[in-house]
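re: that chain from earlier
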Amino acid sequence: MSEPPVTTATATSTEDDASGRRSLRARLRPALGYAALFLSIATVSIAVSLWATPLQQVSAAGQTVQVGVAAPSFDLSGPGDLVLFGQELPTTIHFTGPVRPRLVLSRITLSEQVAQLTQDPDARARSLESALVSGWKRFFVWQVVVVALCSVVLLGAAAGWLRHGVKRTLVLIAVGLVVTEVINLSAIMVTAYSAPDKLRSVRSLSELVGNTSSPDLGTDAAPRGREIRKVAVIGDSTAAGQGNRRVPRATADDRACHRSADAFGAALATTDNWDVTNLACGGATVRAGLLGPQWVGDLMQDPQIDSPAVRSADVVIVNIGANDVRWANLLALCAGANACDDSATRAFFQQQLATFSTDLLELLTQLQLLPHHPLVLVNQYYDPFGDDISCLADVGMTADKQQAMNTELGALNEILANAAKTAGFLTARPDFSGHGVCSEQTYVQGVHDKAPFHPNPSGQLAIALADDHALAGDRS
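^ sequence. v structure.
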């Protein structure tokens, strides 16, 4: 059978269909090219903006915090980042979206910090909430601007490469800018709009991270509430008991470090029948004494944390910080100066405090990693002055100077307490109320004693009672 003849109309229709398909492909090809160009430029612009947009600085609760975003993630939700005491930690709050807040504790303002401590807690919380939300919103306003600037530059470069004229260049930039911002607002801004409600629930920076989880303790780790038998005390002259009775059968190290039979460690051993090893040494700091070796006269003391007594202890008591921030030097300077709250002194102390915060975090991290996983108790410092400073008039101490020194002491204690809480450790602060240096029943040594403002035997006992109470609360 012969095939039907192909008519002219059918051939023409076939040619028209093929021509239409070629024409459609020809029109789609540049459109797809422009779509790919716009998508690439939007991706690069958003990535650059998240990196280049400056962190926004806010002040609240006596601290200066920088607010920005953490590195983007492929997860649809997750924790933000909080840089606290020099360590980057995930927040307990989870945020929606591919980017999340990054909060950096950048400065501590002593006068504001202490003033905050006297405020109503709800007012402090509202101040922090408002500051964080404000900083977060400002960051994303700047982020939108940076995205726009970056995309305009890239689109202009693309137009030049494509050899577009002025009119086509302006159209390309306008369309590309709209596409970029639409993608930015629909993706990145998911977090920008949802995060403020989460940040409004933040009452403190340390609350954002809660207690850090300890390393995997394994099956042989002793839980909280275990029996205490061995205790190691590490720290400075306060823990050593400097200025009081020397330990019986003192070694060369005991004499060099001014360790005393009246130290609070000895009181704990007597009261609780614990095996207490006092490794504290006068003049010790975190770097030179606890984590690193310390020269005391002609003797070099090994790092206290490396002692076998620390490695096998059920409890480690830490008493450190005053030497790190040069508190005794500042006290002597304060007594002889006309005033103690000048800008230079505040700046120096803030610098010392910032360095100590980083060192303290390293110390607490090393304590978390001890193989025996002991309980750790961080001691805060006592107030040596009390309400009466009349006996210090002849050495230049006034009420204003006392207030300035207490401001610094309060800031140091705040760092100690917050760091202990962040690490999941215990903390104790001895109460010397009514027993200041000028009281009839003082807990501290006088200005003419061997170790001025250090605890006397009664003060050491008060510290022991505070520590015993903290440890008893943990065991209950």
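DSSP finds 14 helices and twelve strands in the chain.
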